[in-house]
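Annotators were shown the component list below and the corresponding predicted structure, then asked to write short factual statements about the assembly.
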Amino acid sequence: MASKRELLSPEVAVADEQAHVHGFMATCGIGNRLMLYGGSKSACRDEGHLRANLHHGCRLHEVEWDKDMHSPITRRLVNESHNIFVALQQQAENLTDLALKSYLVKASRYYRSVIKGCCWALQSESENTSSEDEKAWLEDQQQIFQIIELIWSLCEILYIDTTPGAPSLRQLLGWVRWHFTEGKKLASEIIQDKPEKHSCYWEAIYRLLLQGCIDEALELFSKHPLHKTDSFRSLSEMMGKMPQLANFMSQGRSLPEFDIKWRHWRDECEQRLEAGEFLTDSNLTTMAKILCGDEEVFYQMKDYCETWFHMLVSRLFYQNPVVKNSELQHYIQTCLDMYRGDSSHTAQLDSILVAVFEFNINQMIRDCSTYLGSWWFTSHLGDLLYHSGHLEPQKLPQGVNLREYLLLEYASSLMSHKSLWAVAIHYFDFCPDNGSDYLGLYLERIPLDTEVKAHKLLHICEKRGLQEHAKSICKVMGKKCLLNNRVGQALNWFLKSKDSSYATVLSERILTEYSETGQFSNLDLLENLGSSMFLSSKLTFLGQYREFHKLYEDGDIQEAAILLVSLLSARLAPKAFWVTLLCDALPLLEAEQVVISSQQTYELMHCVEELTKEASLVGDENQKKMLEVEKTKLSNICLALTRNLDRAIIVEGSVKPF
Amino acid sequence: MFAPKSIQTDHEDLIHDVAYDFYGKRLATCSSDQTVKIWDKSEDGQWRQSACWKAHTGSVWRVTWAHPDFGQVIATCSFDRAAGIWEELPCESRDETSKTKWVKRPNLVDSRSSVTDVKFAPKHLGLQLATCTSDGMVRIYQAPDVMNLSHWSLDYEIHCKLSCSSLSWNPTRSCPPMIAVGSDDANLSAGGKVFVYQYNDQLRSWSKLQTLALVTDPVHDLAFSPNFGRSYHRLAIASKDLKIINMVPIKQDNNLETGTEYEITLVGQFDDHEHQVWRLSWNVMGTVLASSGDDGKVRLWKANYLGNWKCISVLVGDIPSSIPESSSQSRLDLSPVGQASTVASGSASNKRYPRVVPGGNFGAAMT
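Structure shown to annotators:
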């Protein structure tokens, strides 16, 4: 029991002298990551102890887990399986019944081919690498994926690619042949030259028989020099006569018919065996016993079957080829016992496969999650089983449904990667209960290193209606630009997030910059503000003021004058800027034609009056000095205003010539 | 698979707190050597110190980051009775080597005893900061103008009567501002050691919502779990054991005077740390909880899909020399009964099925 507990919560040692004495503390990071630091036990919290006991050179340790999917090869697996996953979700919505079923079979095979591809890539990579550590890791990974493929294909046979009422034994044989190739390899090796002399001749035949490869076994058998003798011929005949379920099914004949045929055939085998037809050679007897499904002989075949599940399939093939899928579990125990030996220990893979045979899917997924490294396998298989109706959605007060739990965990394990997060997003999309909440929490924590990435994230948020997050992204980007003194870009981001206080601050900055340098930065932006101009009054003014400059530069003096006066009369312009605006009015006032009417001139005079009044109230010496400069400016403006009023009244009073 | 990456901090004394920024790309550490250090993660995944300064005149207990919406801002608290707010300023040259400049925004010196914890409020509450002290005061500060962090006002003071060790803001958007405060008062007869306060918008004040009678032992740390779409709140409490509780709102008429009442349910209680539990840390989703305690180990906790919490991994400090390079000790034998040849490995007939590394696989919690 104690060791069981150890397995469930493995201890991982991290080298740290200080932590060895004082223990560790930890802070969780983003994704599957945490930072360890040498901790402080109770004694360390009082100041006296701290003073007396200096701890030099504290270290931090950043620990990451569930990173297996981040290597280049497995990354390909992630991307390819992602495509299958998304397509499957879409098809699952549209298709029903048989069409869905056949699609699920297809999807399952796609997944398996991706796993296979991954295995091969891992293998060739491990052959090419020179680093021992990497090689070990690659081999480990490769073996994990081989196990995954083994479990997956069994699940496919029993749960997905099923025909009601039809036994799966034929597919199970295929499964065994695919994963145990020793027999075929031996056969093809020794058939070349004098096979009967080969020490493994009989072994090869047994192995082939155990996998139900009757034709191949027969071929090898017929190479024996004695094959013309009666006993050999009798056995060959029986092998050739064996009814094959596959043939029956393809000819559209019924299962009971096959069953009768098969029983007849076996009775005949038994009769011949009992009649002593095969006594000439002990190997022939063994072969005949296999054909008869003799209980004893399988114990001798233990080594050739290698594992209990191979044994299970071999035995059923000769003892009960029409076994129903639901009855498979009754045959497991005997086979397990054959291999158990002294220890009562059942390895993890065994219990996983037993769970699959017993149709205990929850148990199977639990065990797989525990022992197979990553979430990739269980999440995709779980999803497939869910769509095939085998994973019942459970609604629990606290828990979540298993499919979603697995998908969320898998997607979460991708979110901490610098590019795989884009894949993970689609998995969240297909989690109806908590997906969008998870996505939201993760999205806002993706570092916004580049503008491109920020735009991409923004697009993702907008598409999913995550307005709050979109706003936050803009805000953070704006701040970032500001930190780098890129005012225009910053303003752009704040406009996107409709952040009026920052828009105000930045407008002020641009205005100050203008009054200092006489130049506008970020012209493009200012000229194309559009309706976002109304976000803050400062920004509106900034936009309008720039508009005035443009009109003036384009020579549209009349329009420019109207705009300028309206900026002042509507009190849109900040007071500190009035003098600048009034100075801007000077050339207009001095223009050859009268462009500012008497009414407008009065407005401007009001402004001058207001400024002068305020100036007289200021007491500070420095400010007074500053104001001196402004006062000169104001008196110049006053002069220009009166002159203009003079002209305007005359022009307005005269009868216009038609 | 666990892959530790070690960083030499050059702190001259014990590190008391380590805080990741919002994106996990920056790190702040604080220590008994009175300094605070900022670390930035470079493109190649290495942590580099970008700033270091003497922040206090006593041990710095805690450090915490504000939401990046408010800029690059951290807060610290110390034995020297102050809490500090620090802001990173734009610096002229932005090349890699230049150290950034952090300036002190006001030192919050209202406390007359050691400030034991400091936490920024969740982003939706604006730029607010709560501190708690060893003489039992909780103070809530606010920067009324987020453009100008040099001005902070002390908005509320809550007297907890018992020495406070830690506090946590409830991150839930949909409920009124809520703070849980833990007390490390050793007197068991002083009653519950976790107080929950809530802000009442109409009375414009904070008032005590509940005292958790469940915990009478000294509390060293507590933390609300991040909340996404849950109707209840979840709080982890580090005391003589680790407790995870749910606060489930009891449906009632909108009584604004008292606020919503909560039913407290114990989700998990674990004494694996043998004695006191010192520190807690939730991951972003609130799916993993890291705890550390008297046994010197860090334990990771996770709930399975049925909502049962389990310890899924343990991290333990070891003497450097005795550590093999990889975490090979934690490998499991996954061989089936008997032997199997594998297809793809070609030559490897009769090869045993592989050994699998379970370390760090959070699936363990599924059972």
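Statements collected:
1. Chain A touches chain B through 135 residues (CB under 8 Å).
2. Strands of chain A lie at 11-15, 24-28, 33-38, 59-64.
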